[in-house]
Known about the structure:
CATH architecture of the largest domain: 3-Layer(aba) Sandwich
Strand order of the largest sheet: 18-17-19-20-27-26-25-22-23
Distance between the termini: 40 Å
Number of strands: 37
Amino acid sequence: MKFVYPYFLFALFLILIPIIVHLFSFRRHKVIYFSNVRFLKDVKQQTKSINKLKHLLVLISRILFISFLVFAFAQPYIPFKNKLLTTGENAVSIYIDNSFSMEALNENGSLLADAKIKASEIIKAYGHSDKFQLLTNQFEAKHQRLLSKEEFLQMLEEVSISPIVKNISEVISRQNDLLKNSLAGSKQIFLISDFQKTTSNMANIKPDTAISYTLVPVESHTHANVYIDSVWFESPVRSLFQPEKLWVKIINQSGKIVEDVPLKLTLNHQTIAPASFSVEAENETLVPLVYNNKKTGHTKGIVSINDYPVVFDDSFYFTYHINKNIPVMAIYGKEENKFINALFTQDSSIAFTSQNEKNIDYSTLGKQGLIILYDIEKISSGLSTELKRFVEEQGGYLLVFPSEKADLESYNNFLALLKSVRLLPADSTQRKVNALNTKHRIFSNVFEKTPTQIDLPLVNKHYPINRFIQSSTEDILKLNNGSDFLVEQKCNKGSLFICSSPLNLRCTNFSSHAIFVPTLYNLALNSVQTPPLFYTIGNNSLIEINHTSHSEKPVVIEGNGKQLIPGIVKRGFSEMLQTHNHITNAGFYGVINETDTIASIAFNFNRNESDTRAYTSGELNEIIQKYLFKNVSLVEPTTANVTKFIAEKNKGLRLWKLCIILALVFISIEIALLKFWK
């Protein structure tokens, strides 16, 4: 037991007053004369004993009356878990989890409704002079200040479900930032949530020793949910009239097996591939959907199922774009290569152009997906600069075949600009390509099974490639002496492909070999930039569009009855759009420049909310003990009176009222003794 005002305990010295009064009787005795006092002696002895007892009881009553009266002024209390009572104004931050998982039900309705009730009960434990912060997952500007009690309750009514998801560590960090600047004598944080395991990263929280933390869990009756987790294509490239395999990952979090559940794929409002799936309890499955693309342009896809009661994750949106053709350019030295021309000029899906190094139209470089450089003896500084910009900023693919009479200094200067490999003097020893990287995306779909014995090109002359330790190169084809024949170097947004041998039949038969066609054709296909199939709401993702606007009108994003002007960051040939979390509904959105739709994008709700598994109050207590959170406590979901619990937590078990009652009891006993005990 401790005291709010311990200095009042010095008043206990007042107990000496009734003790002194009882030790020294100041009453005068009157002498009465009797003829025979033998009988009076017996009466006197009895009366004296009774008076002693009476006086002793009166003394004890007075001492206890004074003691409890002093205790009442000193205000004794029993602290909550040895927490000392603080005085002065309170600064209280209350976080209410308003994510999708809070739509689950318990006896009070939805978890969000229950959370709002608990928040109002917490507020009742504080005075009108205390200040409060209301924080939700949106981290809105209006929630970044301290409010009065009335303002808090008014703002509490406006809290509704949001698609934004925040980790507990992010929330606590935001609350700490606000309270650390407060001058309040007591700083307290409350977290009202269902404490999902996917978002409650308790190991990452960093409690401030000057702040008290209280976890207020709300629990639902059920955690069952079947949902679409994600989708992706088996191949990175979308092609017209070619088979596409879309993989759908479905997770079953219920305790029951689900069987023969319909799964629907819709493309541009047309049902394409109806299917069904079954999945074991507490398990997941992958479902393949196969179809053909029948037209170019923007494609909007929806994969959907039907599940109840959690429905926000039953549909998954994605978009992609199929180009009418792929722009490929060849830049050559003395004469064009007939094998390259034959490969690309006869394919309608390829927009092929060929330019001599002396007549390059540099304005067209930025429009290409793949540029093939061959038979150029010396790479000029101007061409080097433009090619560097093409690869690093636009994200294009550049394939380099050195000339048979290459000026290695100019080549290595160009490669140095890209922080790439270095070409060594020519080696005329006959070699053979004997290793092919089937895991590389260029060959990933070429072979039905991994080849064990395959005839590969011969090499009569090559420039050995010297890799630097810091260069991120990946081998594609290797020679039988271990040297590289064809390698890829990642260069910021794009890729540089370097062949160690010149592209003529005197140096290698690569151009006439069967492996030449899939190598160059897949390079062209993969050069098409494929933006993400979808974005996640709440992640404030950067959206890249390959478009530079010269219009005075801003680019806008439209969809689901909403229009917003995104922030724009220009990077080379591209523009990065930033939504600042203003998109809150899943679905399709168009990026519009004046009247042209330059991109179609899809947004999905964060699937962290789909995993409804949550920590129980027992598990939260174990976490508190595990990480030794001394200033973190827990309100059990079974707590009937949250206001009383918080009041006792803040002020301890206050005993001054009991002291007043006991003081009145003992003064009443004293009066009764004096009045009725004759």
